[in-house]
Amino acid sequence: MTLKDLRVGKSGRVISVGGEKALRRRLLEMGITPRTFITVKKAAPLGDPIELLLRGYILSLRLEDAEKIEVEEANE
Amino acid sequence: MIFALVGNQNSGKTTLFNQLTGSNQRVGNFPGVTVEQKVGSITGRADLSIVDLPGIYSLSPYSSEEIVTRDFLLKQKPDGIINIVDATNIERNLYLTLQLIELQIPMVLALNMMDEVQANNGSIDIIGLREILGIPIVPISATKKHGLTELVEQAVETAQNRKKPEHNDFCTGAVHRAIHAITHLIEDHAGRQGIPARFAASKLVEGDDPMLECLQLSAHEAESIEHAVKEMESELTTDREAALADMRYQFIEDACGKCVVKVKESREYRRSVKLDSILTHKFLAFPAFLGIMFGVFWLTFGVIGTPLSELTEWGIEELSGVIEGLFESFGLNDILQALIIDGIFAGVGAVISFIPIIITLFFFLSMLEDSGYMARVAYVMDKPLRKIGLSGRSFVPMLMGFGCTVPAVMATRTLASERDRKLTIFLTPFMSCSAKIPIYALITAAFFPRHQALVMISLYMIGILLGVLSGLLMKKNVYKGVPVPFVMELPNYRFPSIKTVLLLLWDKAKDFIQRACTIIFIATVAIWFLQSFDIRFNYVTDSAESMLAIIGQGLGVIFSPLGFSDWRVSTGLITGFLAKEAVISTLAVLTGASITELGDILHTLFSPLAAFSFLIFTLLYTPCVAAVAAVRREIGSLRGMLFIVIYQTAFAWLVAFLVYQIGSLLG
Questions:
Q1: How near does any CA of chain A get to the CA of B375, in Å?
Q2: Domain-located, residue B49
Q3: DSSP conformational letter for B45
Q4: Whole-structure pTM value
Q5: Would you say residue B587 lies in a domain?
Q6: pLDDT digits (tens, 9 = 90+) for B564-577
Q7: What's residue B374's pLDDT?
Q8: Same domain membership, residue B154 and residue B9
Q9: Is the peptide bond before A49 cis (omega within 30 degrees of 0)?
Q10: Coil, strand or helix at B139
Q11: In terms of domains, do B24 and B148 share one?
Q12: Minimal CA separation from B88 to chain A, in Å
C-alpha cells in the first residue's frame, strides 16, 4: 500500500520512496527514508494535502505525492 | 572575520541573526552569488561580520535558496559557519549539519531552543554529541538571549585556530567505499576548483549534476565514477539518492539514540494541536481564516493605518505650507516653487502617506507569519490554488494584493521557486488594490446608486476571475517550468519575536522611502512637467493647453472604442499610473469641479455603459508606479516588468472594449 491509502490516525513504516527527481530528493531529505515510522495525523479541510507526524515534527504533503511512498501499516 | 549563519527554516535563524547584530544590518552583495544577502556585524564586535543565509534543509541544487547557500559557502569561503539547529527537532536538523561538516570549514553548532527541550523533561548530552559530530556545540536560546556570548566566543576561537570539523566520515559499508574511491579519483579536480574533495564526492554519489559539470572531469573519470556508484547500488539494492539519505539518517538516529532523551509530546506541540483543532478544522478553518483576515484588514485600513496615514498626510501638508511660506518670503521663482510644492510635495507626499498603512499591514502579516499561522493557510489553500498551477504558499501574497500591490509583491520573496514567484507577482495586480476604492465609490455612486454594492463586489469578482483565466493561460505559455513540490513543514505555533518583527518593519519602511525618493520622485517631476508646460516649453496656467492635455487627447482616440474619449479622462488615467487615487483628484482638477459636484459632471463625460467600461479598465490596467517598481525589483528583470505592464494594459483595454461594444449591441 502507499502512504495515500493510510487512513487518518493510522501509522506505517516506509518501504520505499518514489517520485521524480526533485520531489524524491526532497522527501528523502525531509526524513522520509526507508523504515521511517510515519503517522497520518489529519487531512486539510478539502481532503488534500495531509498532515504527517514523523521524526518528531509535522510535515504536510499532497496526496499525489504521498502516493509515491510505499508503506506497510505498523504500530509503534 | 566573516561567519555564515546556516540552518533549517523555522530553526530560529533570523531571530539569532537579529539578536547577534541588532540594527547593524545591511544588504550585502557577494560576487558569484545572485541573491542579495543580509550582513550584520555582531554587536560590540565590529570586526565580526555575519551573513544570514536562506533557511534550507539540504545542500542539494534544487531550490534557489539551496543554490545560493551552496555557492556562498563554496565561493566566498567564510572564516566560519554557525550552524543553528532546533533542538526540539534535532533529527531532521542534523541532516543539513552532516553535509555542512563535509565542507571542512571551521564550524560551530548552535543548539537552539534547549530551554524548551529541558522544560519538557528532555535532554541532550552535549559532550557526547560533540564527540560524535566532531564540532563544538553551544546550547542557546535565541529568543531568551541565553548562551549567545559563549556562542560568539566559541565561533571566534574555532575560526581563529582554523579548527576544521574533526570527522567527516559518517558512513559505513558500500557507501563508504564508493565515496572513498571517488574522493581519491577527483581530488585534483576538486582542488583546482577550490571545492573540498570529500563534499564533491558525496555530491557525485548523490547524482548532483551541477557538481559534475563544475569539476570538468574527463570522460574516462566520469565513467569510473558511474561504475563505483553502480557497484554501490547493486550491493545495497537501492539507488544512489536513497542510499545517501538513508545513510545520513541512520547515522543521526544512532547518534540521537546515544545522546538524546526524546520528548514524547512537548507542551508546545500539544498547544499547536489544540490551536489546529480550530484553525485547520474541516469546517472551522475557512471561517477562522476569514475572521482573522477581516480583523487584519479592519485594523489596518480602519483602526490604525488610515488615521496614521491621515496624520502623515496632514504633516506633509503642513510642512509643504511652511516651505511655501518660506519661498514666498524669499521671492523664489514661481515655476520652481510650483515644481516643489505642486509637483514633488504633492506627488511624493501622496505616496509617502501610504507608508503607515503598508507598515501596519506588514506588522500583522509578519506576526501571523512568524507565529506559524501562514504555513497553515498555505496548507489549507493548497488544493484550490493547484488548479492554476500554484501552491498554497502563493495565497498569502495574493491576499495582500487586495490591500496594496506593493507589499504583496514584496511578500512573494518567501516563495521557494522562481517560477511560482513570477506567476504570483503576475497575478497579484488582478486583486483590486485598496487605492482603487475611491474611484469605484465615486463612479458607482454617480451611475449605479441603487446597485452600488453589487457593482463593487462584481468588480472584485471580475478581477479574481480574469486573474484565474490569465493564470491558466500563463502557466502553459510564459511561466513554464516544474512547480516545486509542496512538501512543507508545519512548525509548532510560537509567539513571534517582537524584535524580529520590528526590524522587518524598519526594513520595509526604509525600502519604501528609498523608492519614493527615487523612481516616484522622477515620475512625479515628469508628470508635473508635462502638465505645466506646452509643447513650446512655455509655462501654462490652464492645464488644457499643456503637453499632458495633448497626450490625453491623443490617448482619447485609443479610449473612444471603450466609450470614453474626453481628454480629461485619459489624463486622469495617466496620473492614475502615479497613484490610483490620483484618477479622481485629476478629474476634479481638470473639470474644475469640487468633489461634491464631480458626480454630476461625470454624466457629461460618460454614459452609464461607458462608466462601467471605465471601471473595468481602471480595475485591470497597469499597476501604479510604486507597484511597478516593486515588480521590477522582485521579478529581477526589466523585461519581466514590461511584460506585466503591457499585458495588464492591453488586457484591460480588450476587456473594456468587449464590455462596451457588446453592451452597445445589446442596447
A1: 10
A2: yes
A3: E
A4: 0.84
A5: no
A6: 988 889 988 988 88
A7: 86
A8: yes
A9: yes
A10: strand
A11: yes
A12: 8
